[in-house]
Amino acid sequence: MPMVAYRADSFYTASTVGKIIPINVARVEVVVDSQSGVLSDSRPFAEFISLAIAGDDASAQRVKSRLPQLWHLLQQAEQGEAQAGLRTTVGFSRNGWQRLFSAPMPKNLVDFTALEDGGRSFPATEGDILIFLKSTRMDVNFRLARSLTTLLEGCTRIVEDVQGFNYREDRDMIDFVDGTENPVDEERAQAVLIGEEDPAWSDGSYITTQRYVHDLDSWNALAVKQQEAVIGRSKQDNIEFSAADREPYAHINKGKSTDAEGNEVAMYRQNMPYGNTIENGTYFIGFAKSTEVVDIALRKMIIADAEGQYDHLLDYSRAVSGVIYFAPPKCFMAPQN
User: Fold this and answer.
1) Among 60, 149, 261, 301, which residue's Cβ finds the most Cβ atoms within 10 Å?
2) 178 counts as catalytic
3) Exactly one of 178, 203, 295, 311 is catalytic; which is it?
């Protein structure tokens, strides 16, 4: 990773009458060659589009030939919608990479591993290309998403198109604050961006995605103290319980990635609530310099340990998708390449 310098990453919010109000925040964005959506802070609205390339070789060639135009549309939109704080990311799964590029595959780009234990399941699902858009305006995301999917129409199929939104000041739909322990500033860059471990892909990042569907009726039937025990922090004021006071099955214990010595290994979660009254949940999207970081956390969540403990949040939320992507650095995505 190159020497870092910092610039302010202005966060914007949109009022109900559509005015864009800049808010001064302490967080900053590292000036590197990563795509704009990788390190930047979250926005009130996001769109997550997963695409499958049609099975014939001609379709793969058509997709490849249109990638320069796709990149141009993204850059044009970011400049034109600067007031909306638009940030974008494109990623490719292992299968997508093999079908589109002759360049060596990033060392850690693997398929998502399906996991099952005790009736709980993390499925592996299809997806060759991920398009991740975030801004302060849902209509900005939608218009760009429409342009991009139209560009790839006929040679790809939309697997999922999930529109996320900010819910009650950064809370999930289970009404607990999400993303509390995300790294910031240089720590974020160190956790997310590939460096010397794979120098050919410096400033790229791996993305693990899962879509979760919540059972809010069952969750809301729990007393607040029961919900807090499942999460491991207080609901109203978002105070983390001490290790001595946390249940062994608490999400705050099971949802972290740790090394062999038990030290936490950071990732950057850009999760968003999504849905309506028919179906709703969380779109999990975790960025890290290695796919193993998120994989360790997922295994801790779903697979019961020697004492039979797993993440009890999975009793109220089930995963319905799972894909790993690689977001190349901008120098690879630029049309001249």
Assistant:
1) 301
2) yes
3) 178
